Amino acid sequence: MDLKEKLLSSFLVFENQVDIDTYVHDVRNDAIKIFEEKGFPTKKEEAWKYTSLNKILKEDYSVFPQQENAIEYKDIKKYFIHDIDTYKIVFIDGKYSSHLSQTTHDGMDVCLMSAALSKPKYRILIENYFNKAATKDSLSSLNTAFSSEGAYIHIPKNKMVEKPIQIVHFSTGNESATMLQPRNLIVVDENSHVQIIERHQSLNNNPVLTNSVTEVFTNKRAIVDYYKIQNDSSNASLIDNTFIKQRKESVASVHTFAFGGKLTRNNLNFFQEGERIDSILKGVTIIGEKQHVDHNTLVHHIEPNCESHQDYKGIFADSSTGVFNGKVIVEKEAQKTNAFQANNNILVSDKATINTKPQLEIFADDVKCSHGCTIGQLDESAMFYMRSRGIPEKEAKALLMYAFSNNVLSSVKIPEMKQRITKIIANKLGVDIGFDL
Amino acid sequence: MSKYTEDDLREELKTKEYEYGFYTDIESDTFPNGLNEDIVRAISQKKEEPQWMTDWRLEAFRVWKEMTEPEWANVHYEKPDFQGISYYSAPNSKPKYDSLDEVDPELLATFEKLGISLDEQKKLAGVAMDVVVDSVSVATTFKETLAEKGIIFMSISEAIKEHPELVKKYIGTVVPQKDNFYAALNSAVFSDGSFCYIPKGVKCPMELSTYFRINQAGTGQFERTLVIADEGSYVSYLEGCTAPSRDENQLHAAVVELIALDDAEIKYSTVQNWYPGNAEGKGGVYNFVTKRGLCEKNAKISWTQVETGSAVTWKYPSCVLKGDNSVGEFYSIAVTNNYQQADTGTKMIHLGKNTKSTIISKGISAGKSQNSYRGLVQINSRAENARNFSQCDSLLMGNECGAHTFPYIEAKNKSAKIEHEATTSKIGEDQIFYCNQRGIDTEKAIALIVNGFSKEVLNKLPMEFAVEAQKLLEISLEGSVG
């Protein structure tokens, strides 16, 4: 039985078990129909031209992990940004772990999707927001059909959330292959500000496939900083679908740090539904071996006077493959749009491949849109300069690569987070120097 | 003079009708509509082709039957009915003439209206012309001068008879029959086209030029061009088109193959002005062209194009940089107005070491038109030190048109250096203000800016062609190009 059939048949079982709310019930049923019709995307689709799911779909994934698995905090401490106080929403094999988490209902909701879906007091919010930003593509629909657990965050008006929120999904790998489908909903009301860190981590080498959907709504003048850390084990694959709907004068930024995993696909979509909105998309990708990272971004400029900034840097070693597929659409009404897109890549090995496709689709005339992309090598004269001053080759290379990705790092607003990323990069580049020289 | 604003320009663009819309009544020898193996055989027979050519056409036809039309391009149009087209039509006045005086005077008048009178061309530019009116060569001039140098420049049907060994060796090597839907169709039914061979070490002393015209109602035109530059040779080839006004859509599916052997250089320039349809978007030519060049060692191929016409354009002049140190260039201006749609760009396939490519593409969209750049830069794993620079700039006039960029970049070699940049903007008010301040009126300012915008490409056109290019740009953007 292939994965699609398996999913379709488990949906019937799943639906009977969890269904409570009629609104979500209808949404789920519509979604599974879309998935049934479209199936998993293939390379024939333009958006999947450079990324094939065939290999990872061959595993015999268990769709609903049976066991309750517990893990000790000391074993997984290193996966948290632990040196500062944060809210934590932690899942183990798709199930909420209360003893690792730290949630709140004090003046705002930082809690669980399952609670939001079942408790009547959340009904209006769920009906207003749930599945309202996600598109009807097959993978998001698949997630919608199976959506039951994930993070639910609602920040009411005029609230500065004083500490960052960490959403961490662990998979224990106790079963031979696991498929996880977390679903997150984040609603930030007027004038509020929140910082969120998301991480997916598998704890051993059994294959994991995560098909995650996150919907973020930023209302008037809200500010959202979202950080995604992707540094998973070599058998973990992640399909991350993030949809951000912005109202007027809001600012949303997403930083994606892709360092690991077997196959990582980031579908990052911004919809600007108001004037004077700013969207920021940044990413650093450093991979090697046979890893594959695909950034597929969309910024949809619908109203006038908005901006978007995209900056993606990639370093590709060994037989790794990088894909950047960025799309900016500027609608006819979206005059005075400023949209910038940059994608810079370094190939370190002859076997590495980079495919990049920065697209612009523009229907308005009074706009400033540009994109640039480069593929190149480390500057030899810069290398020589450092080597002639006694810096060994490896360290010199690492310094240059760090400098290369620093543009993206410099806009990270949580210092501890920046340090952590720096350490991961140093580790990735195989050097032992802190970069805060 | 009252203030000339961008709105005025837009208004002018909207109402500017196609000037060269006229129709010459020459008796034609036309085949019945439709396409099957018999028609393919009949075309081949009509052209008195050898058996291998007939077989080659039939092979292409069989492949074509299995293929479907490509739909990935960013254009929307009513699909042509391939069984509703006549696949062959030739002007009646045969056989060929030795001098221009013998040519059908009505035909000469047509050329005069286009401002490309053969006489003038002959005298002024020293351009040898292989004129194609509805698929068959009518006059070939300067042939003797070229013959002295050993250059072969003739219609492809003549070449099939006179130089079968060359045609047989090279035809379909760069664009195989089954390359794509339209290339397969062309391979099966191509009526005529140009053939050019430059022998070893010869620098072609003049620009070679062909003017295309679609002339008979309901006739698709399927040109086939094959240019071979042997080792160390150089040729500059010009191609230009204008077509009469017509209500039903006409199909144009040409194939151009360029082969540059070691150390050779080919410069291929195109000015394209097929009928774009009227202001409501009715009528107009469908231009689905496959153009590709192959570069051997140290060879260079340069494509320059000025696209102002056609209702729908689908065209990607490409370079396969097979030999080490070979160079590919692509310079393009695409102007779309009213309901025109253009999906055009290039492919640079880097296979050899130290290969270089440059892409400069300028898109100007006005009215309700859609203008897309679609390009591919591919660096193969063995292409050490490959270098590419791409620049795609779009200029938008009015908020009902669209400009799109779809660059594909695939690098498989770590020593590759690739740069791509694209911008989209309108004519800035500050730019116009700057000019006004210095006593340049708005009309001149717009002209200056548009001129400057496309200059990088216009500069690449051969002198003889620049006049024609200017003329065609004027039709599309009158009032803005000086």
SSE topology:
The complex is a heterodimer of chains A (437) and B (482).
Chain A: H1 3-18, H2 22-38, H3 54-57, H4 73-76, E1 87-92, E2 95-96, E3 109-112, H5 113-118, H6 123-129, H7 138-145, E4 151-155, E5 165-171, E6 178-180, E7 183-188, E8 193-202, E9 208-218, E10 223-230, E11 236-246, E12 251-258, E13 263-272, E14 278-287, E15 292-301, E16 307-316, E17 321-330, E18 338-347, E19 353-362, E20 368-376, H8 380-387, H9 393-409, H10 415-428
Chain B: H1 6-15, E1 28-30, H2 37-46, H3 51-66, E2 89-91, H4 105-113, H5 118-125, E3 128-133, E4 136-140, H6 143-149, E5 152-155, H7 156-162, H8 164-170, H9 181-189, E6 194-198, E7 208-213, E8 224-229, E9 234-242, E10 250-252, E11 255-260, E12 265-273, E13 285-295, E14 300-307, E15 312-315, E16 318-321, E17 327-336, E18 341-344, E19 347-350, E20 356-365, E21 370-379, E22 387-396, E23 402-411, E24 417-425, H10 429-437, H11 442-458, H12 463-476
Parallel strand pairs in B: 3-7, 6-8, 7-9, 8-11, 9-12, 10-13, 11-13, 12-14, 13-15, 13-16, 14-17, 15-18, 16-19, 17-20, 18-21, 19-21, 20-22, 21-23, 22-24
Antiparallel strand pairs in B: 1-2, 3-4, 5-6
Helix amount of chain A: 10-25%
Number of helices of chain A: 10
Oligomer: heterodimer
Instruction: State the domain count of chain A.
Output: 2
What this model shows, in words?
The complex is a heterodimer of chains A (about 425) and B (about 475). Chain A has about 425 residues and is an alpha/beta fold. Helix content of chain A is about 25%, strand content about 35%. Chain A has 10 helices and 20 strands. Chain A has a 10-stranded mixed beta sheet, with helices on one face. Chain B has one domain. Chain B is globular, with a radius of gyration of 22 Å. The two termini of chain B are about 15 Å apart. The chains are: A alpha/beta (about 425), B alpha/beta (about 475). Chains A and B meet through strand 19 and strand 20 of A and strand 23 and strand 24 of B. Strand 19 (about 355-360) of chain A pairs antiparallel with strand 23 (about 400-410) of chain B, so a sheet runs across the interface.
